[in-house]
Design goal:
Elements: E1 18-24, H1 26-30, H2 42-58, E2 59-69, H3 73-80, E3 87-94, E4 100-107
Parallel strand pairs: 1-2
Antiparallel strand pairs: 2-4, 3-4
Length: 108
C-alpha cells in the first residue's frame, strides 16, 4: 500500500489509474459552509465538481467510486448525476433514526 498525501481538488494521478476510489466523509467536509443545502454557494459547487471530475478522470472504465456519507440523495444526486459524468449511480441507506448513505457509482 502506498500512502499519498494529495489535494482532493487536484488529484496527482494519471487518467484511468484506479479500479476503485473510496471516500468516507470527504465530500461532507466540502459542504460544511455551503449555506442552503438546496442551493449551495458557488464555491461549494465548484469544489464538489472539481473533486468529482478528478475521481471520474482517475477511474478506469468499469471502475467504481464508493462514497459513504451523511449526504442525502436529494442533495447529492444533482452532483453525481451531472451530465459530464459517465457513471451509473446507486445508493443504500443504513442506520436507525440517524441515517447514512452508501453510494456506488460505476464508470461506463
Amino acid at each position: 500500500v502506498d500512502v499519498v498525501v494529495a489535494d482532493m481538488l487536484d488529484l496527482p494521478f494519471e487518467s484511468e489509474s484506479f479500479d476503485l476510489v473510496i471516500e468516507k466523509g470527504t465530500m461532507d467536509v466540502l459542504f460544511v459552509d455551503s449555506g442552503d443545502p438546496w442551493n449551495p454557494n458557488p464555491t461549494t459547487v465548484d469544489n464538489v465538481t472539481k473533486m468529482l471530475e478528478g475521481i471520474h478522470k482517475v477511474l478506469k472504465p468499469g471502475g467504481k467510486f464508493v462514497s459513504i456519507t451523511f449526504g442525502q440523495p436529494h442533495f447529492r444526486r444533482r452532483f453525481f448525476e451531472a451530465p459530464e459524468f459517465t457513471w451509473s449511480v446507486e445508493w443504500n441507506t443504513f442506520g436507525d433514526g440517524f441515517h447514512y448513505f452508501f453510494y456506488i457509482l460505476q464508470k461506463v
